[in-house]
Design goal:
The chain is mainly beta. The protein has a single domain, classed as Immunoglobulin-like. It is 5% helix and 50% strand. It has 1 helix and 9 strands. The strands form 2 sheets. Strands 1, 2, 5, 8 and 9 form a 5-stranded mixed sheet that branches. Strands 4-3-6-7 form a 4-stranded antiparallel sheet. A hairpin with a 6-residue loop joins strand 3 and strand 4. It is globular and about 40 Å long. The two termini are 20 Å apart.
């Protein structure tokens, strides 16, 4: 997967998930991406992190609402490692400014915590 997506008319969400317990990319974390136009949640995509802990989501059309929600299945990831996490799911809700078409997020996870960084 390329670090930077090619130029296009769509919106790119570039996400990297890092397992801070083991100090490695969180491989195989599944995610569901949604937006909330006019008060109704619309699913855009389902995806999974690759071998580098990254997922690149291209939303072909620019949604009317720039409010996004991404649900990460942390339970499935840690269960595969024999660990029961405190947070089975992480739901990120954020606003993507209209003038931005490439958005980068880094999600740091442990079984008992998480942190989200917006990369500039």
């Amino acid at each position: 997967m390329a670090a930077e997506p090619p130029a296009a008319d769509g919106i790119f969400l570039l996400i990297r998930i890092i397992d801070c317990v083991y100090g490695r990319p969180a491989v195989g974390v599944s995610a569901r991406v949604m937006t909330n136009p006019q008060g109704k949640i619309k699913e855009y995509a389902r995806c999974r992190t690759d071998a580098t802990g990254r997922m690149t989501l291209e939303l072909e059309e620019k949604p009317a609402s720039r409010l996004f929600q991404i649900d990460f299945d942390i339970n499935g990831y840690f269960a595969a490692l024999g660990v029961t996490p405190f947070y089975p799911k992480i739901s990120l809700n954020f606003r993507m400014p209209v003038h931005i078409s490439h958005y980068k997020l880094i999600v740091l996870i442990t079984p008992s915590s998480y942190s989200v960084l917006k990369e500039e």
